[in-house]
# Entry
Amino acid sequence: MRRLFIVATLYVALAPGALADAEREIEYLLAYVADSGCTFHRNGRDHASADAADHLRLKYRRGRRYAESAEDFIDHLATGSSWSGRAYSVSCGEFTEPTADWLHRALADYRAPAD
# Structure
């Protein structure tokens, strides 16, 4: 019983920091989208990067419970339509790729230690 209490106490003590990190990373990703200048493809239509970021911000506000981490945000909210089920994609220059790949790479770059 004492061991369970210690684990629970550690979880409560550490959880706010983890939540703050996730929030910071998600805000970074939203800014990354907005500032990218790329074209986002959603449900057969093209959207400017600022509009795409606004849309993802709205999805995050409504679906925050599905995004306990930045990975959750990407996988559950930022890479596909909950309405049509179609995946989002992004075009930066002549290259188009799934938004999931693009955002996961951006997150990895953000987390990489500065040299």
Observations:
- Strands lie at 39-42, 45-48, 89-92, 95-98.
- The chain has one domain: 2-111.
- The helical segments are 2-35, 49-63, 70-78, 99-111.
- Residues 1-15 have pLDDT under 50 and may be disordered.
